[in-house]
Structure formats: C-alpha cells, structure tokens
Amino acid sequence: MYLIAVLSVFIVNIVPIFAPPTWIMLSLYKISNPELNIGILVLLGVIGSVAGRFAMYHYSKALGRYVPQRYTGNLTQFKKAVEEKKCGLFLGSFAYSLSPLPSNYLFIGSGISGMKIIHTLTGFAFGRAISYLLLIYGFYKTFSSFGVSSTGNMQLFGNILGILACVLLIFIDFQKIIGKTRNIASCIKRNNRRRLINSVRELTFSKITTQ
Asked: What is the DSSP letter of 192?
C-alpha cells in the first residue's frame, strides 16, 4: 500500500502541468485505506514529492536552453537576486510550500534559470511535511463522510494561479526592478527627497516586462 502511494506521488510530481495536487491524492488514498498511518503516509508523500520535483528541476534545466534569451535573462537576474541570500531562498520556499498551491512552476522556473536547487528543495520538503499533515488530516476528517466533488475546482484554481506566477516570473524584467529599487534605497539613505520621488515614479510607471 505505502509503496504504491510513494510511487504514485513521484509520478504525479514529475508531470509539469494539470497534475492532481499531492495532498488531495494522499487524502483520497487515506480515505480509501483508513488503516494506513497518516504520519508514514505524509513522510512517504514528502519523499515522493521531493524526488519528483528534483527530476522536474533537471529536465526543466535541460529544456531551458530552448527558451529565448530575452526571457531567460529575466530569470537569471531573479536567480542572482535570490541566491545572494540563501537563507531567504530557503524561507521563501518553505513559506510557499506551507500553502496548498502547486509547486511545479517553482521548480520549472528554477530549472530554466539554472538556480541552485538545494535550498529550494530543503524548504519545500519541510513546508510540505507540515502542510501535508494538516491538509490530509483535515481533509480526511471533514470529507470522508461527505464526498470530494469540490476538489476539481480547487485543483483548477490552484493551477491557474501557478501558471500566472510562472508567466510573471519569466516576463518581468528583474534587472530593471532591482536597479530602480537600489536607487530608491540609495535616495532614502542620502535623504534625497527629489530623487526619491523621481525613482518611485519611474518604478511605478515604467514598463517592467521584457519586450
């Protein structure tokens, strides 16, 4: 039983788009097999998810060479910004993974940009361990007697949010944003109000997407 669960989770986490959320799949598995220990199920779910996302990262990295340079440049700037603070990368991944939102786009973006994966993957593992435990337990207790017909809408909504996040990650010009943000920080430090107002205006009204 447990072996089937972890293999299923691994396969689902390799699929790049419109795969069922892992926590829903594990919840349904728990409902179908109530004798399974939820702690072991969560642990195996995390192992399967991490292995699947690790594989997704590597094939996204291989396919990244086919993405136009003007878009990979944005991801490269994002990569440089987040890799300066490895603790921040871990905490960001951890915080995101606490939510039920799909994580495939996080690893696709990391792979295309060539970002170092260890901190993202570690944060993902810890975050998913907590979220899986809470979501599976809550789902099992709440829906085991009432059916799960509403899960399709939840999956669709989550995938739409994930796609939008991935599109923004690719098209936003992070080099421009980082440069203008540094100008604002410099103005604040020097107490230059006129330049600060101009920098904020430029950041607010200028285009931040790659043409």
From this structure: -
